[in-house]
Amino acid sequence: MARTYKGFHLHIGIFGRRNVGKSSLLNAITKQQVSIVSDYAGTTTDPVEKPMELLPLGPVLFIDTAGIDDVGALGELRVQKTRQVFDRTDLGVLVSEASTWGEFEELILSELKSRDLPILVVFNKIDLAEPAVDVTGRLSVMKIPFVRTNAASGAGILDFRQCLLDSAPSDFIDNPVILADLVKPGALAVLVVPIDKEAPKGRLITPQVQSIRDLLDNDSYCLVVKERELRRALETLKEPPGLVVTDSQAFLKVAADTPLDVPLTSFSILFSRFKGDLATQVEGTLAVDRLRAGDRVLVAEACTHHPIGEDIGRVKIPRWLTQYIGGKLEFVTVQGHDFPDDLSPYKLVIHCGACMYNRREMLNRILRCRKANVPITNYGLVIAYSLGIFERALGPFPAALELYQSRARSGQ
Predict the structure, then answer these.
(1) Is the omega angle on the peptide bond into residue 56 within 30 degrees of 0, that is, cis?
(2) End-to-end CA distance of the chain, in Å?
(3) Which of 104, 327, 340, 378 has the fewest CB within 10 Å, making it most exposed?
């Protein structure tokens, strides 16, 4: 289970006050001592993650959070970490002691509802008291399922498990494909994988591996080559491939070596659709033309890594954009789950393909940008645009291409 990419897990966030039994509940459902359990409030400090196989759903990721009512300076830091979990939650579990329901629970419930998340309420410690009838009645009216548990003894855990299965969002069950809808069964896709300083030693990066698996699941053929061998590889084929996919950094060479009648895009653009909202990010790309020297641009990376000399987010994209607009921009980089609360200082957000995120977290980031009226694009889209091959890179996606062309015609 630990080898299944986190982005493919259903993310289940467990929220509630301190010492209501969140950690005990997680330990009970996983049947492992994942979180430290103590009678002292605030034992859980940072979010604790536990991947597991929850049949018949498949891989899920439980995230046990610190109490949202924590106090003091250290407590505020814990609460801030907990709030970040909201952004990557697919299914929210609100845990309350059976005898306690008040302002904190209402605030958490309101936050989960504002994000249009499926919600499950767990009344824990039923050995001490039953939940108030007016509270359960109101939850029933709102059609929010609830269960009664005693995590310490295991009572109600099977009901909790069933409720998790029943509450799973449909978009997790009906997970979109990466590129299988672009390549028919029995057809060939050529994947261009540069092996340079940024390529991890002895393995491929996540988008490449997931794309290969998606093609295999679709009964499609897959040919993997380096950019230097692409032209020769295409010449040896009896029939042209159904699609060529490249690392965005090799866009120019791959575009030059790929016949115009062969659809071409990049892994990053595929993941803009797979993990987020391609249409919104295509629109966001047009903001590049409104950038002026001195503007601040936010570059967001889903994973944390030590940058190298030719890092794509810190070096290559800034270089290409600077050349495109003819002036120096100010670039700010964030990594992992860090993302500014205030986006107003930025004229554009450029996000990676988000291969390590679940789709919910990426959609939340896109939504936050839209609320702040700050355009958002992604690595592959902004690279293709700044290099002058944007329309070709959108060729496999007719709706996105038409959106761009209509915006370009109207001057937006």
Answers:
(1) yes
(2) 46
(3) 327
State residue 36 phi and psi, 5-degree precision.
Answer: -70, 130
Do 255 and 317 reside in the same domain of the chain? no
CA–centroid distance for 396 within its chain: 22
- Give me the domain span that covers residue 391: 276-410
**Tokens of residue 129, six digits:** 């008291």
Task: Report how many helices (DSSP H) and strands (DSSP E) the chain contains, helices first.
Answer: 16, 14
In this structure, is residue 183 part of a structural domain?
no
Say how far apart CA 21 and CA 352 lie, in whole Å: 37
Q: Is the pLDDT score of 394 beyond 90? A: yes
pLDDT tens column, 146-178: 999 999 899 999 899 888 888 888 767 666 789
Opening angle at CA 17, ends 12 and 22, nearest 5: 45
DSSP string, 74-92: HHHHHHHHHHHHHTT-SEE
Tens-digit pLDDT profile for residues 101-139? 988 899 899 989 988 899 999 999 999 999 999 999 999
* Structure-token pair, residue 351: 């996000």
Q: Are residues 193 and 245 in the same domain?
A: yes
Distances, alpha carbon 319 to alpha carbons 100, 186, 256, 324, in Å = 56, 40, 21, 9
Question: Which has the closest alpha carbon to 198: 246, 271, 249, 266?
Answer: 249
Beta bridge partners of 54: 58
Within 10 Å of residue 114's Cβ, how many Cβ atoms?
A: 9
**Full strand arrangement of the beta sheet holding 188-192:** 221-225, 188-192, 243-246, 264-266
By the 8 A CB rule, do 47 and 82 touch? yes
Q: How far is CA 385 from CA 53, 188, 194, 256, in A?
A: 41, 27, 20, 16
Which one has a higher pLDDT value, 83 or 368? 368
Q: How many Å apart are CA 52 and CA 28, to the nearest integer?
A: 13
Kindly report whether the global pTM for this prediction surpasses the value 0.90. Answer: no
Convert the pLDDT of each residue in 280-321 to its tens digit.
999 999 999 999 999 999 999 987 665 666 788 899 999 999
